């Protein structure tokens, strides 16, 4: 018997506002140097909310430079509202609403026309009110999707699973969404030959709620403590449809979502710091074909608090295997909540779920409804940036970068922006050799023939532009290589942070450095010295070359004299080369480089040696 995994995901994201969701207390994730007033910016929203409910949410502390650290003292960022003192009333943080709507737009969601908050009733020590202000009936965003890249390996597994029994757990990784449609349908994209395809993971809903406090369990004590610093922080919950089939797909979904959230600036989404938390619901069912109705879903198991991409992948794959082995032995799956033990590499039971919990949702009477949200969303569309997937395609096509380089820039938004500023400077450079060979000019070839003049000028300009684009692509690649590999190396050597690259080397100077290396004005070793000096001092490369005497020696006459000396002093390698030992040539080149302290152009040296030794 083969089984098809059905996996849905719930992702909780702490929003990076300055203040909490319903009060003015400092939000640990959001406080930066500037004070922030979190208000609903849309007149459409203001018109529907009374003034008392729409006052600015201002961070309590406005001290210049103050930043919240994960190790802040417990219960210092609290007030009567977030600790549920009698008589306190909540106030909507409009910035949090804005962030959720922007996320929904980024994920192609529909935006609700109207929405409201509700009370989710349950008791737990970290929930001071005895209920959580959340959303259920009217989420802010719904029916969206996120596209991820899946390997052809996944498609092959799908194909094989229809005819073979997978091992060891007899589980099919077939495609097919929860509704029986093809989940692996996608379009081919640029991939450097890797055969990756875009695939949609559907988003069911995105809603806004407040976070809970945090329980602290002192070692050896018979009591627990509660820290309410996090209580009331704005929390966005994203729920997917059960379209995920493998742990790797879930990991890629989380990684791509994290990138989008960071591009939007709504959250840092650092899983290890709890800013992005993932829960998965997994069940197995018998597979279906396109002509069959979907079979009944199996018993659902929930895995909570997965705090890294690696753990998300491993926990899902382990749970699929575990459930498959249980069904293979004829045992039943228990509906339960499980956790992940990273040291053992397995899930473990936390509590049994006997049925669906009734939270008795009802509208929050102390908060006004949110109106005309779809109108507000039109205003926010202008704030939506270019997203990772579009950036991947553009960097590859516009700059000719390979996939690995593209991914580095996509993952590091600041470095990517710096790279594009450098490329903009390179595009304006006048120092490259965009020209035809001698005598190949319009004046020489057209002999004052007006018709030929027009035809040739067009071809001449096209060839010139092609040559320019070809050299620019090489320059872009060279600049990318130095940014990705040499800048971190220089930063480590100098024991400085490479995040302040732009403050140390402005894009214009880095572009000039790239041209210098491209034209071989300095050697490869000289380029490293030059870059380190620029990184350390911020001085332009031309000045550094002059003061440090780094200019590469490429003069044939000067190098010819040195080559003759090396040939005279090394008769045996010379004889070996003449007998066909190519390695001897490299030895002789090395001797010339040694004499010139690494300043000789090795290509020119090699050519001179070949001419001298083949006479």
Layout of secondary structure:
Layout lengths: L3 E11 L22 E2 L4 H4 L10 E2 L35 H13 L3 E2 L6 E4 L9 E4 L6 E10 L1 H10 L35 E14 L3 E3 L8 E3 L6 E7 L6 H18 L11 E10 L15 E6 L2 H20 L7 E6 L4 E7 L9 E2 L9 H8 L7 H12 L3 H9 L1 H15 L14 H5 L3 H45 L6 H4 L2 H12 L5 H14 L3 H8 L7 H14 L1 H8 L4 H13 L6 H12 L2
Parallel strand pairs: 13-14
Antiparallel strand pairs: 1-11, 1-12, 2-3, 4-7, 5-6, 5-16, 7-8, 8-11, 9-10, 12-13, 14-15
Helix pairs in contact: 4-5, 7-8, 8-9, 9-11, 9-13, 11-13, 11-14, 14-15, 16-18, 16-19, 17-18, 18-19
Structure commentary:
This protein is α+β, with helices and mostly antiparallel strands and 615 residues long. The chain has 3 domains: 6-144 and 199-382, no CATH class; 388-548, no CATH class; 556-613, Arc Repressor Mutant, subunit A, CATH 1.10.10.410. Helices cover 40% and strands 15% of the residues. It has 19 helices and 16 strands. The chain has helices spanning 43-46, 94-106, 152-161, 247-264, 309-328, 373-380, 388-399, 403-411, 413-427, 442-446, 450-494, 501-504, 507-518, 524-537, 541-548, 556-569, 571-578, 583-595, 602-613, and strands at residues 4-14, 37-38, 57-58, 110-111, 118-121, 131-134, 141-150, 197-210, 214-216, 225-227, 234-240, 276-285, 301-306, 336-341, 346-352, 362-363. A 9-stranded mixed beta sheet has the order 4-7-8-11-1-12-13-14-15. A hairpin with an 8-residue loop joins β9 and β10 (225-227). α16 (556-569) crosses α18 (583-595) and α17 (571-578) packs antiparallel against α18 (583-595). The radius of gyration is 32 Å and the shape is elongated. The N and C termini lie far apart (78 Å).
């Amino acid at each position: 018997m083969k089984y098809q995994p059905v996996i849905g995901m719930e992702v909780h994201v702490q929003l990076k506002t300055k203040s909490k969701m319903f009060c003015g207390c400092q939000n640990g994730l959001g406080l930066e140097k500037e004070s922030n007033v979190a208000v609903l910016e849309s007149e459409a929203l203001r018109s529907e909310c009374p003034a008392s409910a729409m006052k600015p949410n201002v961070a309590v502390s406005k001290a210049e430079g103050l930043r919240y650290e994960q190790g802040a003292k417990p219960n210092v960022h609290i007030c009567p509202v977030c600790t549920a003192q009698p008589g306190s009333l909540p106030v909507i943080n409009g910035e949090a609403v804005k962030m959720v709507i922007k996320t929904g737009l980024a994920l192609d969601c529909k935006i609700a026309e109207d929405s409201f908050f509700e009370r989710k009733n349950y008791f737990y020590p970290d929930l001071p009110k005895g209920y959580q202000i959340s959303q259920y009936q009217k989420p802010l965003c719904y029916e969206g999707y996120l596209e991820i890249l899946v390997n052809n390996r996944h498609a092959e597994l799908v194909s094989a699973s229809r005819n073979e029994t997978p091992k060891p757990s007899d589980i099919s990784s077939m495609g097919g969404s929860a509704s029986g449609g093809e989940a692996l349908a996608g379009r081919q994209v640029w991939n450097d030959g890797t055969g990756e395809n875009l695939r949609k993971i559907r988003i069911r809903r995105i809603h806004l709620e407040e976070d809970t406090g945090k329980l602290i369990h002192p070692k050896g004590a018979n009591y627990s403590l509660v820290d309410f610093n996090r209580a009331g922080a704005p929390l966005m919950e994203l729920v997917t449809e059960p379209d995920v089939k493998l742990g790797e797909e879930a990991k890629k979904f989380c990684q791509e979502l994290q990138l989008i959230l960071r591009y939007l600036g709504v959250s840092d989404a650092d899983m290890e710091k709890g800013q992005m938390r993932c829960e998965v619901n997994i069940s197995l069912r018998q597979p279906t074909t396109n002509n069959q109705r979907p079979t009944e879903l199996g018993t659902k198991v929930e895995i909570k608090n997965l705090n890294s991409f690696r753990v998300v992948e491993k926990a899902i794959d382990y749970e699929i295997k575990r459930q498959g082995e249980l069904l293979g032995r004829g045992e039943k799956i228990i509906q339960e909540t499980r956790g992940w033990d990273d040291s053992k590499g397995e899930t473990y039971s936390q509590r049994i779920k006997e049925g669906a919990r009734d939270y008795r949702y009802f509208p929050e009477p102390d908060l006004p409804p949110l109106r005309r949200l779809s109108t507000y969303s039109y205003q926010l569309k202008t704030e939506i940036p270019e997203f990772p997937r579009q950036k991947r395609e553009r960097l590859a096509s516009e700059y000719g970068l390979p996939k690995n380089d593209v991914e580095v820039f996509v993952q590091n938004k600041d470095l990517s922006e710096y790279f594009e500023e450098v490329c903009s400077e390179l595009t304006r450079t006048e120092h490259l050799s965009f020209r035809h060979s001698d005598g190949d000019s319009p004046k020489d070839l057209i002999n004052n023939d007006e018709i030929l003049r027009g035809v040739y000028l067009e071809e001449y300009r096209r060839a010139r532009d092609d040559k320019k684009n070809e050299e620019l692509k090489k320059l872009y690649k060279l600049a990318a290589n130095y940014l990705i590999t040499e800048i971190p190396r220089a930063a480590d050597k100098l024991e400085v942070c490479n995040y302040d690259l732009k403050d140390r080397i402005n894009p214009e100077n880095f572009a000039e450095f790239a041209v210098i290396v491209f034209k071989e004005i300095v050697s490869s070793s000289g380029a490293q010295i030059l870059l380190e000096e620029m990184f350390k001092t911020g001085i332009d490369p031309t000045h550094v070359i002059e003061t440090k005497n780094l200019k590469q020696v490429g003069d044939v006459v000067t190098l010819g004299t040195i080559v003759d000396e090396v040939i005279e002093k090394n008769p045996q390698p010379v004889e070996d080369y003449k007998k066909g030992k190519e390695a001897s040539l490299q030895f002789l080149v090395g001797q010339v480089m040694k004499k010139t302290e690494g300043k000789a152009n090795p290509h020119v040296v090699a050519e001179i040696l070949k001419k001298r030794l083949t006479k």
